[in-house]
């Protein structure tokens, strides 16, 4: 069959078992569409053909995808098709970046062919150079594909290629603090893997790069938190890292003025994004499946497969730390999973610890397990991060006592030895961890663990010295070893010998091997099973039910720079009750509130119905109106409200309805948080009850940044649903200003920009919707503000830009004016290409004249075919040229252009000179004559010239350089044959030094021919009428035949005179 489907994939490797997939069909269709349109055409013809086919949105996406596939599949046409892609894309390459993030890199990277991988890295390098929007997400996904513990050629090549791209584009990298921190975290981690002599060159390159980031961007790296210290410890013997380590310990302010020392880092919890970035999407998917879907007792074959796939080499042992930190920090099971027969986290971590074959990796894995214990803070840290450590020791006492004793020995010795100057604080942190474990009933008591008589005598002594208050005769009461409570038994899991399967009898009863397998994550529960040394013991008293834990997949409010693999099984459920730790945390704040207010907060904590929550908040507002709050009450009430309204503050979807209408906007205001806003704006400004509500909002704003942009959204949305828009709008303005004043901030612009920046990160759609009101209502602070403008432009897409352009043209929006544009333009030179292009679209809509751009012209640089795009300002120059093209030449414009530094590789000045000469020949000659004659003479008298003349004077050498460039680049000899230009050249030659005459000899050679034409006036008259026939403002419409005849006549006259000269 001629139309038989290809059996191989263009991008992915295939085999008998794993052949083509649905993506291949989609990519082939898109690729064939592009090839059918461009086959046999030149580059320019291909571009026109592609543009002509872009009328339909679906066609646009398909063509962009097809060009992407062709770039990845064929290196010979990659450069041409990338150029086509940048020209035809109308969504800032959104289709390309999303396809790379979600499909090619995120899902199928391991299946990419060798050639495709190389083309992918080439494409990423070009995207980064160009500064395409969302390319940071692509880089973040590539970072994830650098697998820890993997020193295969493919993985090492990827690490080296990516570090080369990032080194070449440091200015781009520095714009994304989260990417800086993620890159630092990644390369600090893989430096441990590249310790072999065969990696010496790569290791040095990585060390130089990462130490540079640490020293130059340490403020950005601080967001990593305590795990930054852990990674630095693992590679502290490297000379450059050791030097940085000394500064970190002894001279912290040299790294960052506000940095107080290593304690600050250790007290900062590491965000889950850094744990995620160190697992490939495939690893993450499998480890999440193991922890959330596999029944306890059925895990053997999954663990064996994982071990063969990822942990089967000596180098791969370092991966165990990454897995343990990910399980502890990212997988927080819901109540449903905790109460089910799913394998608990401690069992997976116990398997990772017991199967490790490297002593160094084992020690590092233990540190990874207990790392959050060291400076544990009950206010900021999470009980779920320390729970696995205590449970893996508790459940290993009988089936695997060596593991338990080694962990106990480790936790005792780490306190004085981790960092001796902080020994007291570390001891307090570990003690806080143990107290929290007991308070939350993770285990009933620590005596069975700390006072185990089968334990080594020396270890028991060490434990008693380290944790005296948690051993026998402590405040918890004496509990015998034989009385410790076993895990809750599950009736749904069959009997299995887990010790034989995994080497660890996690959860199995040592007394009765036929008993049910136990699977609880916590000690305690219904129908507790007991076991002890004696065969018969009375049943222990039934303990309280186990704590209910709420999963927290993302506790850090900052949005990750790019999408991560979905973790559907471990996402929080909206209807889950609040965790015990949350209630305990709130109780500390409730102590400062009045009883009535405390009752409302507790009701709000338990209430799930939205309408009832709104009613409770209204009652709270009424209570605040009747009773003024003091500062302490306000702060604690704000904390409670932010905590209880966290789901409303971060709903996970856009605040703006999909279909915008008055009705849908009205429905969006049903958020309980908005009850507080509504009470505030309905009160008159002189009402004394307004101040307590306003102060409460200030404290909530300090606690949770989302409050600010929720308030802005409410103010605009409430205006839309209101009939008295103008009256309410004025009220909104004063209310938002009052919020800034109440916060004690004088810089209102910074206050607004801060809220809008968070809004742009969390909900760009609302930002573009609300920004016109910001500019109109706060014009004094926002109009012409370059920081705000960039914030808006970096979040816009083409549709949202079109909305803004329409509003500007309608006269309902003004974002800047003529007086502020020059300053904005100068600052925009450091922006991304797309942001600059969007700025110029808005400048056209605002009808900014070219005069506003002239002051920036000398600062604009350009080099044709430059390899360093960051050193050029092509976006600004090309748009200024388009503006000049629509202007007729004037003295000011010409002087500005000629004052621009002459560089042969910069075609900017010669381009517009040629354009004007073709259309305004005589006028240009007269203007150049004025410029040359205004040149100050090189004599003492030049100091007597007035200031305006000096300011506008162009050095003669500069004028001649540009004129010579015009002659050589464009062949404008006809223009130089004009009588005025002949006089100019003669004047210039008389003023030049001998060096200059020699330098511009070819230019001055045109004068000699004209001088010898004087004895023969008749031939000389012939070209003059052709020049004279052109009017002063000759336009492009003049016929081509006249221009051609004029040129021929001049050439004929020149030949005649050359003949006379030879005669």
Structure notes:
Residues 1047-1057 have a biased composition (Basic and acidic residues). Belongs to the Integrator subunit 3 family. Residues 601-1006 form the Ints3-like C-terminal domain. This protein folds into five domains: 1-133, no CATH class; 150-268; 286-530, no CATH class; 580-744, no CATH class; 890-1062, no CATH class. A three-stranded antiparallel sheet has the order 2-1-3, with no helix packed on it. Mean pLDDT is 79; it is low at 1-5, 474-584, 722-728, 935-951 and 1010-1046. The chain has 1063 residues and is mainly alpha-helical. The N and C termini lie far apart (80 Å). The protein contains 58 helices and three strands.
Name its key features.
3 strands, SOSS complex subunit A homolog, mainly alpha, 1063 residues, INTS3, INTS3_N, 58 helices, three-stranded antiparallel β-sheet
- Percent of residues in helices: 55-70%
The overall pLDDT, averaged over residues, is 79
Major beta sheet, strand line-up: 2-1-3
How would a crystallographer describe the biggest sheet? 3 strands, antiparallel
Find the structural class using helix and strand composition: mainly alpha
* Rough outline: globular
By DSSP, the count of extended strands is 3
The residue ranges in which pLDDT falls below 50 over 5 or more consecutive positions are 1-5, 474-584, 722-728, 935-951, 1010-1046
* Cα-based radius of gyration, to the nearest Å: 37 Å
Strand residues, percent: under 5%
Please tally the helical runs, counting DSSP H or I stretches of 4 or more residues. Answer: 58
N- to C-terminal distance:
80 Å
Whole-number tally of structural domains: 5
Keywords: Cytoplasm, Nucleus
InterPro entries: HEAT_Ints3_C, INTS3, INTS3_N
Pfam family, one: HEAT_Ints3_C
Organism: Scylla paramamosain
């Amino acid at each position: 069959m001629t139309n038989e489907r290809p059996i191989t994939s263009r991008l992915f490797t295939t085999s008998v078992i794993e052949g083509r997939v649905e993506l291949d069909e989609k990519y082939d269709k898109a690729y064939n569409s592009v090839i059918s349109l461009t086959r046999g055409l030149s580059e320019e013809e291909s571009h026109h053909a592609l543009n002509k086919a872009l009328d339909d949105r679906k066609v646009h996406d398909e063509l962009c995808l097809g060009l992407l596939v062709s770039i990845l599949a064929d290196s010979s046409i990659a450069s041409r098709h990338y150029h086509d892609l940048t020209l035809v894309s109308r969504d800032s390459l959104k289709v390309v970046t999303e396809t790379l993030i979600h499909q090619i890199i995120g899902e199928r990277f391991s299946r990419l062919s060798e050639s495709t991988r190389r083309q992918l890295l080439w494409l990423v390098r070009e995207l980064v150079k160009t500064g395409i929007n969302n390319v940071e997400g692509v880089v973040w996904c590539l970072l994830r594909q650098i697998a820890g513990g993997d020193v295969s050629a493919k993985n090492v090549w990827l690490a080296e290629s990516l570090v080369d791209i990032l080194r070449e584009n440091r200015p781009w990298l520095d714009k994304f603090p989260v990417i800086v921190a993620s890159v630092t975290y990644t390369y600090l981690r893989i430096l441990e893997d590249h310790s072999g002599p065969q990696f010496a060159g790569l290791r040095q390159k990585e060390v130089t790069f990462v130490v540079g980031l640490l020293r130059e961007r340490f403020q950005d790296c601080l967001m990593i938190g305590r795990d930054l210290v852990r990674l630095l410890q693992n590679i502290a013997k490297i000379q450059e890292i050791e030097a940085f380590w000394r500064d970190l310990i002894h001279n912290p302010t040299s790294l960052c003025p506000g940095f107080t020392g290593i304690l600050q880092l250790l007290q900062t919890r590491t965000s889950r994004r850094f744990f995620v970035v160190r697992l490939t999407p495939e690893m993450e998917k499998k480890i999440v499946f193991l922890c959330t879907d596999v029944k306890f007792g059925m895990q053997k074959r999954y663990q064996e497969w994982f071990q063969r796939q990822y942990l089967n080499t000596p180098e791969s042992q370092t991966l165990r730390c990454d897995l343990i930190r990910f399980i502890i920090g990212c997988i927080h099971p819901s109540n449903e999973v905790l109460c089910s027969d799913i394998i608990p986290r401690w069992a997976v971590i116990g398997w990772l610890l017991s199967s490790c074959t490297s002593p160094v990796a084992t020690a590092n894995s233990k540190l990874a397990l207990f790392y959050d214990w060291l400076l544990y803070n009950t206010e900021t840290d999470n009980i779920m991060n320390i729970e696995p450590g205590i449970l893996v020791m508790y459940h290993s006492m009988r089936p695997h006592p060596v593991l338990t004793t080694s962990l106990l020995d480790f936790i005792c010795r780490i306190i004085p030895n981790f960092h001796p100057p902080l020994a007291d604080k570390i001891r307090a942190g570990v003690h806080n961890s143990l107290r929290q474990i007991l308070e939350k009933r993770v285990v009933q008591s620590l005596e069975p663990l700390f006072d185990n008589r089968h334990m080594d005598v020396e270890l028991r002594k060490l434990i008693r010295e380290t944790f005296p208050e948690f051993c026998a005769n402590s405040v918890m009461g004496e509990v015998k070893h034989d009385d410790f409570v076993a895990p809750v038994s599950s009736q749904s899991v069959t009997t299995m010998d887990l010790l034989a399967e995994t080497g660890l009898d996690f959860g199995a009863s040592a007394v009765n091997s036929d008993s049910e397998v136990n699977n609880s994550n916590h000690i305690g529960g219904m129908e507790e099973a007991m076991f002890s040394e004696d065969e018969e013991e009375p049943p222990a008293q039934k303990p309280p039910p186990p704590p209910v834990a709420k999963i927290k997949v993302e506790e850090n409010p900052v949005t990750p720079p790019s999408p991560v693999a979905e973790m559907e099984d471990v996402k929080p459920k909206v209807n889950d009750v609040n965790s015990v730790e949350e209630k305990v945390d709130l109780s500390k704040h409730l102590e400062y509130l009045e009883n009535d207010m405390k009752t409302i907060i507790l009701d709000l904590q338990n209430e799930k119905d939205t309408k009832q929550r709104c009613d409770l908040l209204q009652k709270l507002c009424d209570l605040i109106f009747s009773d003024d709050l003091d500062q302490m009450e306000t702060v604690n009430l704000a904390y409670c409200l932010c905590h209880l309204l966290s789901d409303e503050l971060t709903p996970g979807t856009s605040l703006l309805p999909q279909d915008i209408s008055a009705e849908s906007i009205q429905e969006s205001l049903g958020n309980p948080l908005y009850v507080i806003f509504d009470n505030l704006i309905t009160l008159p400004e002189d009402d004394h009850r307004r101040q307590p509500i306003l102060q409460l909002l200030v404290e909530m704003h300090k606690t949770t940044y989302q409050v600010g942009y929720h308030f802005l959204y409410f103010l605009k949305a409430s205006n839309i649903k209101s009939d008295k828009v103008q009256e309410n709008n004025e009220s909104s303005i004063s209310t938002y200003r009052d919020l800034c004043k109440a916060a004690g901030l004088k810089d209102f612009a910074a206050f607004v920009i801060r809220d809008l920046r968070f809004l742009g990160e969390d909900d760009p759609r609302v930002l573009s919707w609300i920004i016109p009101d910001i500019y109109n209502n706060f014009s004094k602070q926002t109009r012409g503000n370059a920081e705000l403008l960039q914030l808006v432009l970096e979040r816009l897409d083409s549709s949202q830009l079109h909305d803004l352009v329409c509003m500007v043209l309608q006269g309902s929006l003004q974002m800047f004016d003529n007086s502020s544009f020059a300053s904005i333009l100068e600052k925009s030179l450091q922006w991304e290409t797309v942001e600059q292009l969007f700025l110029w679209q808005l400048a056209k809509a605002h009808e900014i004249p070219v005069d506003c751009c002239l002051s920036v012209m000398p600062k604009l640089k350009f080099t044709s075919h430059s390899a360093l795009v960051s050193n050029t300002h092509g976006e600004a120059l090309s748009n200024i040229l388009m503006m000049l093209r629509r202007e007729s030449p004037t003295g000011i414009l010409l002087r500005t252009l000629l004052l621009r530094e002459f560089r042969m590789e910069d075609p900017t000045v010669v381009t517009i000179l040629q354009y004007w000469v073709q259309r305004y020949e005589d006028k240009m000659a007269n203007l150049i004559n004025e410029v040359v004659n205004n040149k100050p003479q090189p004599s003492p008298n030049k100091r007597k010239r007035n200031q305006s003349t000096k300011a506008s004077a162009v050095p003669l050498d500069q004028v001649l350089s540009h004129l010579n460039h015009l002659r050589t680049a464009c062949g404008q000899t006809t223009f130089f044959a004009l009588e005025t230009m002949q006089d100019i050249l003669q004047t210039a030659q008389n003023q030049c030094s001998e060096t200059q005459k020699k330098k511009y000899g070819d230019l001055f050679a045109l004068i000699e021919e004209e001088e010898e034409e004087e004895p023969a006036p008749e031939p000389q008259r012939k070209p003059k009428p052709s020049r004279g026939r052109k009017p002063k403002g000759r336009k492009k419409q003049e016929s081509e035949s006249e221009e051609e005849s004029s040129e021929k006549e001049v050439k004929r006259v020149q030949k005649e005179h050359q003949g006379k000269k030879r005669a």
